[in-house]
Every structure is written in structure tokens, then in C-alpha cells.
Write a structure and sequence with these properties.
- About 70% of the residues lie in helices and about 5% in strands.
- The protein has eleven helices and two strands; from the N terminus they run ααααααααααββα.
- It has helices at about 5-20, 30-45, 50-75, 80-90, 95-110, 115-120, 135-180, 195-215, 225-235, 245-255, 285-310; strands spanning about 260-265, 270-275.
- A two-stranded antiparallel ribbon has the order 1-2.
- α1 (about 5-20) runs antiparallel to α11.
- The radius of gyration is 19 Å and the shape is globular.
């Protein structure tokens, strides 16, 4: 069995496993990585960029090295290598749990359970839920669905198709560290600089792939590709993130809504630039966003498998 076939099969099996089971409920390897990172931070933390660079190199480099070793150990056994790629893919994907949480949020908002929706929001993003009404919760959830469709599915599959198991694991390490320390606050402004910049670089390609696929698939939820493309080209550059802006603007254009505006986090309030045209998103738009996210995820898995098959 040629290596391209192994990689393609592993990516598709891993994606299918995530679709069926979602994230592992116990013993999730990403949670284990997070625990390791927190313990290492107790040793490496200094209020300086160099310390953050060392922290990033040790954790990401160690994770990539494990992927390389595992790939070499199984390289002469096709079934074992396919299982390895599938297991790594399942481990790093989060698209099914993302979509499930988005639907749960829509259900809670439709039933008028605002308190339940506020309790659920932290599993999607870092906004302060106590300051949000139903429309604010819908917008926060939709923006998270847009950004994390790229981060939780498109990006890991992108790197898996290009670099195999080391790419899958390395990307998830980079993204997890950004979520842990990549903040512009008093503690992490310097220490988290390397994590934030590395994540920006790792997502430059995947975010634009996600934008293209979102644009093409806009008709799946009744949108127009031209509107998604226009919102992307006009508005994405306004966003403080070079990658989240692409994902959110193309999604806003596809849905025909406007995202951005006053955004309240626990660490403070930001006035985000507006993305897209139209009214603020409602619960029905959140459901449409989940459907589009799932379509983008499936298309990405098929494209990634095709790239992996032809590359090796």
C-alpha cells in the first residue's frame, strides 16, 4: 500500500471517527498536553519574550518529534501507519464537538433559557456571558463557529495533508499553546508573544483555504458566493487577527449578516470592526452557520485526502 493511500485513508478514517464519536470524553491527549504545558510553565515562565520562545520550542518541538518517531516506527506496516494517521487525526480534530455545541446553543436560545446559554458559551469562546443578551450570545457563538471551523478542522487537516502525523500533532500543539498563553494581558504580553505569532503563521494558509471553501459553499445555506467573497476582500483586513478576519468575514458574507462591533471579554471591552452586511445574527443564523461549518469540514476532509494521496 503506497504512502499516499495510507495518508489519505488515515485522514478520512480519523475524520469519520470524529464525526461518529466527537472528542474523547476521558483521557483526551490534548488535555494531557495542556496539563504538561501548565507544569512546564511553572519552570519556564519569565516576563520576557525569550522565555516564551523557549517554552514554545520545547513543547512544539517535542510534540513534532514524537510524531516523527511514531511515523518512522510504523512506516513498514501499512495497517499500523493508517491506524496511526487515523488516531492522530481524530485526536486533533474538534469539528463535531464544535457543531454539537453550536446546535445546543441554538436550542437553549430558542427555548428562552438565557442562563443555560450563558453557562454554555465559555465552551465556545472567551466572551463574558453575563453581559450578553440572547442576540449577543448568538453573535458570540456564530463568530466562534466561524473561527473554529478553520482552527479545529481545516487547519489540522491542511497540515496533516502536507506533513502527516508530525503536521497534525504539531499544529494542535501550536494552537493549544496560543489558547493558553497567547494573550495581550499583563502576564502573557511578552511570554505569550511566541505562541501567538507561531499560531498566526501556522494558520495563514488554512484560514484562506477555509475562506475559499466557505465562499464556494455559501449556496448550501442559501447564501451567494459573491457576497461571501466581497465581505472577505473588503472586511477581513480590518480584524485584529490576520486569520480570524478571513474566517469570520467570509462566513458573515455567506450568511448575509453583520458580525463584529462591541465585544466584551473578561479582561475588558473591545470595539471590533464590522464584517459583512445585513442585520445582526439571530438564532436561525446560528443554525445556518453550523450547517455551513459541517459542509466546510466535509469538503476539507475530501480535499486533504486528495492532496495527501497525490503528494506521496
Amino acid at each position: 500500500m503506497r504512502s499516499g493511500s495510507i495518508a489519505a485513508a488515515g485522514l478520512l478514517i480519523g475524520f469519520a471517527t470524529d464525526r461518529v464519536f466527537g472528542d474523547p470524553r476521558r483521557g483526551h491527549p490534548v488535555a494531557g498536553f495542556g496539563t504538561t504545558a501548565m507544569r512546564l510553565e511553572q519552570v519556564t515562565y519569565r516576563d520576557q519574550r525569550l522565555a516564551g520562545i523557549v517554552h514554545e520550542i520545547v513543547l512544539v518541538g517535542g510534540t513534532v518529534s514524537l510524531g516523527i518517531i511514531a511515523q518512522r516506527v510504523t512506516r513498514r506496516r501499512g495497517v499500523a501507519q493508517t491506524a496511526l494517521v487515523a488516531a492522530a487525526t481524530w485526536t486533533v480534530l474538534g469539528g463535531t464537538t464544535l457543531a454539537k455545541t453550536g446546535r445546543q446553543m441554538a436550542d437553549l436560545l430558542e427555548s428562552g433559557d438565557i442562563e443555560g446559554a450563558r453557562k454554555l458559551l465559555p465552551s465556545l469562546c472567551g466572551r463574558d456571558p453575563e453581559l450578553l443578551d440572547a442576540d449577543g450570545l448568538a453573535r458570540a457563538a456564530l463568530e466562534s463557529i466561524a473561527e473554529n471551523t478553520s482552527d479545529a478542522t481545516v487547519a489540522p487537516l491542511f497540515w496533516g495533508a502536507i506533513a502527516g502525523v508530525p503536521g497534525l500533532l504539531g499544529y494542535r500543539a501550536v494552537n493549544t499553546l496560543d489558547a493558553m498563553v497567547g494573550y495581550r494581558n499583563e502576564r502573557y504580553n511578552r511570554f505569550g508573544w511566541a505562541a501567538a505569532r507561531t499560531d498566526d503563521i501556522a494558520n495563514l494558509g488554512p484560514a484562506r483555504v477555509a475562506g475559499v471553501i466557505t465562499t464556494v459553499l455559501a449556496p448550501v445555506i442559501g447564501g451567494r458566493p459573491a457576497d461571501a467573497w466581497r465581505a472577505w476582500r473588503r472586511d477581513a483586513g480590518k480584524h485584529p487577527s490576520p486569520n480570524a478576519g478571513v474566517a469570520e468575514a467570509s462566513m458573515a458574507g455567506a450568511l448575509g449578516v453583520q458580525l463584529g462591533g462591541l465585544t466584551r471579554y473578561r479582561h475588558g471591552t473591545e470595539m471590533r470592526p464590522t464584517l459583512g452586511d445585513g442585520p445582526a445574527p439571530r438564532v436561525a443564523d446560528l443554525r445556518r452557520a453550523v450547517r455551513l461549518s459541517e459542509a466546510v469540514q466535509l469538503a476539507t476532509a475530501l480535499i486533504a485526502a486528495t492532496v495527501a494521496y497525490t503528494r506521496r
